[in-house]
Design brief:
Layout lengths: L2 H37 L4 H4 L9 E3 L1 E4 L2 E10 L2 E19 L16 E4 L4 E10 L5 E11 L2 E18 L2 E8 L8 E3 L4 H9 L2 H32 L5 H10 L5 H14 L17 H12 L3 H9 L4 H12 L1 H17 L2 H6 L10 H11 L4 H21 L1 H11 L4
Antiparallel strand pairs: 1-10, 2-3, 3-4, 4-5, 4-8, 6-7, 7-8, 8-9
Helix pairs in contact: 3-13, 4-7, 4-10, 10-13, 10-14, 12-13
């Protein structure tokens, strides 16, 4: 290996390994979300399929005697054929094996040599007693079992009922299997109707509209109050400014559980109980947002503001024409945080709106009803979860650049 080849090898091999590892762990992180989205397009039976499958499948069907029947696929005489289940026709089969291949402790795990309808085998009246691993003896009946060219003496390991399947093109061709475990003929089929059911039966469209109104109201309110507060605490000189800012910032340390009862009493007194306005107004002030924008405003050179003041610009004009455009990363960061908080808020809507007032439900409350109503249909529950989680993901992807800029530049200066 030449020195140049060795250099290339030492340079690109670590990078390739790093990219492979990062790709692997990224896939592990995103796989639950992918599986949730795929499950939201499945039907109920496909959700419980074992082993689990990523893509949604549905059984192929055909019309038979005026009925829509699922198609099963079996290999008979070396040829793969389509079969349909004959309802009501179950046959008791005997599962036979040799004496030296019987699993005495668990007969169903024996090495089965032949399985035939029990009425086609002839009982000899003889029994064979075999001793298990625990020392106990078990008796097995001896049968004359049809075989190619004659019969053979085998022991009956166990018996079980099996369903009859016939070829719809040729009813003379049939086979037996257990319908519950029979191989269905399936194809990939996305059930978009799951979303129609979630929206129509549980009124998720109303909850989605309510959540959007509440979220936009909270985000707009926090942006406006934080921009004015951040500018006042960073640029406007007044007595007690720093002390007032520290007191305001200290309110972040007050746990929400301490505020629940006073806030609830205030909402009841002013008549905002069970109304969407109670989900917006109490949250339009945020000490964190004020602190975030104050720290960013401090980094803006004072010379720009002084030049604007000398040109006769008012503070309001300076704020909206200079500070706000320069602070887009910090404002976008605050908007994302506010959006995620308002969109995913659960405890306060549960207390002030309640489960019974479905007209004013937000998505987090509707998810409770969705889980209760469709407890036996996880595909519909995950459909509702997809409706709730997709908007925040889309917003984050669209504003990702501003979010990263804001985190990198706003929190490290002051």
């Amino acid at each position: 290996m030449t020195p140049q080849q060795r250099t290339l090898w030492n340079t690109y091999l670590p990078r390739a390994i790093a990219y492979l590892l990062l790709t692997f762990f990224a896939f592990l992180m995103i796989f639950p979300f992918i599986y949730m989205m795929m499950t939201s397009f499945k039907n109920s039976s496909d959700v419980f399929h074992f082993p689990p499958r990523l893509f949604p499948y549905s059984a192929e069907t055909r019309e038979q005697n005026g009925e829509t029947l699922p198609i099963y696929r079996f290999t008979v005489d070396g040829v793969e054929r389509d079969f349909v289940l004959v309802e009501g026709e179950r046959t008791t089969f005997g599962f036979f094996t040799a004496e030296d291949q019987v699993n005495v402790d668990s007969p169903r795990d024996s090495n089965i040599l032949s399985q035939v309808p029990l009425d086609e085998a002839v009982a000899t009246g003889e029994t064979v007693a075999l001793q298990g691993a625990d020392g106990e003896q078990s008796e097995f009946d001896v049968y004359e079992v049809p075989a190619e060219g004659g019969t053979q003496r085998l022991l009956l390991a166990y018996r079980g009922a099996m369903d009859k399947f016939v070829d719809p093109e040729d009813p003379e061709i049939f086979t037996y299997a257990v319908a519950r475990t029979a191989p269905l003929s399936e194809y990939i089929d996305f059930q978009f109707s799951n979303y129609n059911r979630a929206f129509d039966e549980l009124n998720l469209n109303r909850a989605l509209v309510n959540t959007t109104i509440v979220t936009l109201g909270v985000v707009a309110g926090q942006l406006v109050t934080s921009i004015f507060g951040g500018y006042a605490f960073s640029r406007v000189q007044f007595r007690g400014r720093n002390t007032l800012f520290l007191v305001y910032l200290g309110s972040i340390m007050i746990p929400f559980v301490v505020l629940i009862i006073p806030m609830y009493r205030v909402m009841v007194i002013i008549g905002w109980e069970n109304r969407l306005v109670s989900l917006i107004v109490p949250w339009i002030f945020t000490a964190y947002g004020t602190f975030l924008l104050r720290q960013f405003f401090i980094t803006i050179p004072k010379e720009i503001e002084e030049a604007a003041l000398m040109d006769g610009a008012s503070r309001l004009r300076i704020l909206w024409t200079i500070f706000v455009p320069l602070s887009q990363p910090a404002i976008a960061t605050l908007a994302i945080f506010s959006f995620l908080y308002a969109w995913n808020s659960f405890l306060w809507p549960l207390l002030i709106i309640g489960e019974g007032n479905t007209a004013n439900h937000v998505l987090t409350l509707s998810m409770i009803r969705l889980r209760n109503v469709f407890a036996d249909q996880p595909n519909l529950v995950l459909t509702g979860a997809a409706v709730a989680i997709l908007p925040p993901i889309i917003i984050f992807i669209l504003a990702q650049r501003y979010f990263i800029e804001g985190v990198a530049s706003s929190g490290v200066k002051g």
